Each structure stands twice: as C-alpha cells, then as structure tokens.
Amino acid sequence: MFMDGLDELDLKIVNLLIQNARISYSEIGQQVGISRVAVKMRVQALEQKGIIEEYTTIINPQKISGAVSCYFEIETKPDTLAEVAKILEKNDTVTQIYRVTGKSRLHVHAVASSNEEMEKLICNTMDKLPGVVECTCNTILSRIKDIKGLRL
User: Quick one: 84 exposed, middle or buried, by C-beta within 10 A (0-12, 13-18, 19+)?
Assistant: First the structure.
C-alpha cells in the first residue's frame, strides 16, 4: 500500500504523533491535507510495519516525591551476559536495558520509589549478578534533555 520507508505524508503524520500521540485523525488530516479515513489507514499501516510501536504516557520520576532514577553500567564476562540480561528483564525496578559497545556491556536504567528501594535493587540484584566484572551506578539529579524515540 505504501513504500517500505516513509513517504513525505507519512513523515508529517509521524511527526505530529511524536508531538502529541493523542491528536485525532481529523486534526492530523486537517494539518496534512487528507481525510480522517486516509490518516487512519496510514497510521494503521505504520503500526503493522512496526514503525509505530506503541503509544504511551511517560511519567517523570523526578516529579514524584522520593523517586530515585539511576543508570548502571555493567561489564560482564561474555558467557554470562545473556543470563544477566534475563535477570534484569524480570526486575520491575529496571525500566530499560541496552546492550552497548565499549567496556560496559549493558547500560541499565532503573527507577525506584525511594532510596531504600534503590538500595534493595543494588544489594539484592545488582550485587548478586553472575559474572559481573564491574558495575557502576550514577544517580540522575535532574533531566536536562530527554527525547523519546526517533526524531525525523
């Protein structure tokens, strides 16, 4: 139906959705010059292709009293990397896990409701991960810039 990539109209639609995922198909149609039905078809095609993965509400943990947000850089032995990733995936405090290049093999983000909960994550999970060569933790003090997803 559409090109494998994004044509100019798809790009405009995606950019409007990035700015406001709650924008109506009618409003998008008015801004890009096509019908609501045509917008809906294009958005559904983008979803089916996996270009649009999800619509979500993002909560800023720094605005919630007591919330603590940290990044962990974890260097593991190569043969334990997958096991470490699986353990972290199961933990509700862990919000993001990235496999990265360089000395650290995993970049992990965690958000806890309190310092005590973050300490529990560190003591009960991070300190007990198998094959960890080094693990560093950085607490996020403030958000300066935080772009979600791809900017087109």
Answer: buried
| Nearest to 151, CA basis, from 19, 50, 58, 5 | 19
User: The pTM is what?
Assistant: 0.69
Distance of CA 60 to the CA centre of its chain: 13
Closest CA to 106 of 128, 123, 124, 129: 129
pLDDT digits (tens, 9 = 90+) for 80-97: 999 999 999 999 999 999
Query: Going edge to edge, which strands form the sheet with 106-112?
Result: 94-99, 106-112, 68-76, 132-139
The residue with tokens 């979600």 is: 148
Please say if the pLDDT value at position 141 is more than 50. yes
Q: 138 - beta bridge partners?
A: 71
Give the contacts of 103 (CB within 8 A, at least 6 positions apart).
75, 134
Structure tokens at 43: 């958005």
Question: Would you say how long the chain is, in residues?
Answer: 152
The closest of 70, 86, 71, 67 to 129, measured between CA atoms, is 86
Q: What are the φ/ψ torsions at residue 140 (nearest 5 degrees)?
A: -85, 125
